[in-house]
Here is the input.
Amino acid sequence: MTVTLAMLAQQTGLAVLDHLEHSARIPVVDGLQAQGDLLVIPLSMIASAVAPGPNARWTEVGPEGIELLRGAAGGNPHTLVADPGTCRWTAGVSDSALLAIGLFEASAVVYLLHPEHGATGCPPGTYVVRRQREHEGRRARLVAD
Here is the structure.
């Protein structure tokens, strides 16, 4: 089934900005993805640095979605959206770089939705969601969306 931005917005109740093409088909990307201040990384790419924590609590992700992160100064949310029974999320993660905000495991395509950036899909697998960091000379800071 083709999933569009309008379909995800209606399903979650999140309004997406008018400059986005609401009828656009959401791409499903197998690999590293960036969305504003977040990175979505297949766990296999960084498994030596990231793992579920010993007391990780998993939450089922549903059609209404789970907010993963809200932009700087109360901005727009990054929301993970999945069909019932196909995805679970935990913020209980161990990350040597201290950038991960969580992990999700998906048995079907799931979507990351943002009102300004639109949406992207992730095929089945396990993924790390990390904050992006930018460097200016010798200084590093988190990307603010």
